[in-house]
Amino acid sequence: MKDTPLSNCERDFLLKAIEEKKRLDGRQTYDYRKIKISFGTDYGCCFVDLGQTRVMAQVSCELVAPKENRPNEGIMFFNIELSPMASPGFEQGRQSELSVKLNRQLERCLRNSKCIDTESLCVVSGEKVWQIRVDVHTLNNDGNLMDAASIAAITALCHFRRPDVSTQGQEVTVYSPEERDPIPLSIYHMPISVSFAFFQQGTYLLVDPCEREERVMDGLLVIAMNKHREICSIQSSGGIMLLKEQVMRCSKIAGVKVSEITELISEALLNDRKARKAGGKCGFAESMPQERITALKKDETPVEMTDVTETANGIIQKGEAAPQTVPSPVVPVPGVGQVGQGLQNSWGLEDDDEDNYEEEKNDNSGDEQVEEVTKMDVGEGDVVEISDSEEEEVVILNPEVPEKLKNTGSKSHQKGAAASKKRQKK
Amino acid sequence: MFSTVRERVGEVLLPGDEFSFEAEEKISLTAPVKSEKVVCGPGLRRCGDRLVVFKSGVLRHKEPNVFWIDSQQRRYVPAKGESIIGIVIAKSGDVFKVDFGGSEQASLSYLAFEGATKRNRPNVQVGDLVFAQFLIANKDMEPELVCIDSSGRANGMGVFGAGGLLFRVSLGLVRRLLAPHSDIRSDLEQLFPCELVVGMNGRIWVKSATVQQTLIIANLLQSAETMTAQQRQQLFRKVQQGAF
Predict the structure, then answer these.
(1) Which domains does chain B have, with CATH numbers?
(2) Within an 8 Å CB–CB cutoff, is residue A21 touching chain B?
(3) What is the pTM of this model?
(4) d(CA A292, CA B228)
(5) Chain A interface disruption, residue of B71, B87, B231, most A CBs within 10 A
């Protein structure tokens, strides 16, 4: 899809406003938009909001063989995805010019600056090293994706914890998070990029351009710096001529902004660590603000309630009582298959099957199947004893057992039968 | 059925709710039977002998028999007779291609302006804004715009002059602004003099004396979307006192 075109009137107005030092949202020339950083439940996942621009970064790791010319160093891989969610002009899968530019800039900012100690990622020299992969997804484009992506990437890297490993000679044991606490990456410094947009052939400059401003700008200067005022990368695009004093001024401004942003990131990481230690709930659900639209709000909403009691009574009467105990399991003879056996063709029974399917769809793993099933049974008003053990034997379902009981029976069986039923449905 | 629909005016309805034409009311044999006509507006559709709701929102009514659902959305679907603000994207032969925020581009013939003839072409460049209304707008054909009404007069439509700011709002706000006795409009009138063009596709063009005032009005309208009347009046009053 194509982006909405920019009309002449908007362009003229924006340029005129910039000449009068006015921005669309009322910011000053050197002001950043409001930055909000939130973390997910997994280590290494973070969302960054820069005004309306929204990106998500996810860090993951994997043990791989190292590159031939660098047997002692781990591998870092960066990827920025411009998703069609962000803007109608972005197409899925197509490498547009902007995407190439952003990827290149992020690599220069993070890889060439050597902010991560890659030698600490080596496990067995020449054979196994950690490959750290940073994926940045753009969720909404309101300008200045580069800055948002760089903040998200470095924050996610600081937040990430990789599994602990130990080596005995050539053998490598990777410990799961339950066995040993995962360890953070060793990060030397946090490079953050700051974007400057130039207008009228370099006469006017704005920090953190929004989408409209980006459309009318003449050129862009991106400076990546860390809080120790070390420049990690400078890139100027758009072909404008910049004076030496302008570049010096921009680097001074960048220094100030980077230290502010670094403080914000450290604070966010600290808050998250405290929340996790205190055992509180952490994750996106907690950090999403309650956004309520209060216009047209009614205090009382009239809802059709006339026949609710009759319908509820009808449902309760129709539902039969589930059995109190699990019917005695039948152990199959070895070699007898259980997939698909013992179940009647249940295509005609739509309600129950749909309920089953809905429940199973929500499962993440077979382990949770048991809990889900318990909830559903309890919901029907009866308590069914289901063993918590995950190692019960798999059973064959008898066709003579009545429909309802059979379905309940099938649910209370273990991973094997339930998973096979899941596979059937899929 | 008219009465059943009437009772639910002002209620929140969800897609799938329906009103059926069942003959529940007793038909009197002696009194004359008046034919009930129900005009369905946006959000209501006739499905066989039922009236089905397909958008979630509040059911509204206008005398004598017009019903529609008031819903919120930002994506514009073209409808015949609605006036919109479009951006001219291309000139191909005798036709301008205009983007109005829909799934397709609309075509606008150069003869569809007041006083335009083959020799006397209108002064429209690529990137200009036009205020036009839909002549053809259905799902089977390419939408077509015109800048004149049925009698050949411009009636306020045509190319925009220079200056001013264009911004986007939701369709609900646009309808509230265009309603006959709109609160928002009357509040806005007390602020400062400005020129306002409201397109039904969610685009608004504002022009005021200074850049600052134009920006203020644009920001006020964008934030008025999610405010109650009281909050909005408070905000407008604050701006009025702060403005000079």
Answers:
(1) 2-25+32-70 (2.40.50.100), 82-160 (2.40.50.140), 165-241 (3.30.1370.10)
(2) no
(3) 0.73
(4) 12
(5) B87
